[in-house]
Amino acid sequence: MKHEREDFLIEHHTCDTLRTKPKSFELYEEYSQKSIDDTIRIHKENFEEADSKTKKTLEIEVKREVEDFRIWLEKTKRLEPRTAYYYSISLKSLLLGLSVGVQVAYLFDTVLDRLAIDSSLRCR
């Protein structure tokens, strides 16, 4: 039952992303050339089916992917290092196959938007 509930929440949140997709999702889709919905589903399935040794390997790959994404954000999108870090790290739980990753991405997006607004107000 819990598994079905988590699947429903993921589908519900990812469907919502069609209307108000966090910027980190959009950037990651551009970087990876894959839809975020597919990414979430594939990573979730991979981690659910993995034994402990395979999970460690997947975790190393996720760590590398997050770092590569951060570097891409800095070089290609010319984001400040701190901003690139937060966008990339906000996707880490999704790439680890965790359902909470969708909520984390939305939270980071809200925080980064708020910081951008506060920063622009201080510059005036």
Explain what you see:
The protein has 124 residues and is mainly alpha-helical. The protein has one domain (2-122). The protein has helices at residues 2-20, 23-32, 36-49, 52-76, 81-89, 92-95, 101-122. The longest helix has 25 residues, at 52-76. The model is unreliable at 12-18 (pLDDT under 50).
Secondary-structure topology with pairs:
Layout: H1 2-20, H2 23-32, H3 36-49, H4 52-76, H5 81-89, H6 92-95, H7 101-122
Helix pairs in contact: 4-5
**Percent helix range:** over 70%
Overall pLDDT? 81
Task: State the distance separating the first and last CA atoms.
Answer: 52 Å
Helix/strand order:
HHHHHHH
Q: What's the gyration radius in Å?
A: 15 Å
- Biggest sheet statistics: none
The low-pLDDT segments are 12-18
By helix and strand content, what is the structural category? mainly alpha
In DSSP terms (H or I, runs of 4 or more residues), the helix count works out at 7
Count every beta strand, where a strand is a DSSP E run of 2 or more residues.
0
Kindly report the oligomeric state of this protein. Answer: single chain
Strand content: under 5%
- Overall 3D geometry? globular
Number of domains: 1
